[in-house]
Amino acid sequence: EGAELATGGSRRGIVVSTLAEARFFAAGGFDDILYAFPVPRWRLAECSALAQRLQEFQVLLDSPQGLEMLLQNPLPGGKRWLVWLKLDCGNGRAGIRPADPGALALARAIAQGSPELVTLVGVYAHCGNTYACRDIPAIQAIARGTTAAVLEFVTA
Q1: Could you tell me which residues come within 8 angstroms of residue 109 by beta carbon, excluding any fewer than 6 positions away?
Q2: Closest Cα to residue 33, out of 19, 18, 17, 12?
Q3: pLDDT at 142 over 80
Q4: What is the tens place of the pLDDT at every residue in 66-76?
Q5: Which residues form the Alanine racemase N-terminal domain (predicted)?
Q6: Where are the domains of the chain?
């Protein structure tokens, strides 16, 4: 009920952190879901099933190996993997650092490689490094830093 309220009844545009959540929302009629964790190989079959079932099932990538895995496992029926490049802007949990020389190369490889198989939707950053903050100014500083890093990367 909360997710339906949060989406204004559209049942679109939600983010989940587990595939169990994705399956739960898919069963409830949600058909636009972002799995906010770089796809591990051992979860590829589950991600593929959701991508085939839903109008839009989006995943994160943060490595050339992840991109190669998706390219080697295309979706059937003309569907494409919908990918967000996961940037690590200080959280240290997942993603590629925007200043890493390989980050731009990976973004270009996703965007220009085989768009009929893997399509770059955008870039994604999570400010999980705010969890240890003790006050609002500290949270705002991290948010500003993350925003600046993402904008600089996207501009490049």
Answers
A1: 64, 67
A2: 12
A3: yes
A4: 999 999 999 99
A5: 9-130
A6: 1-126
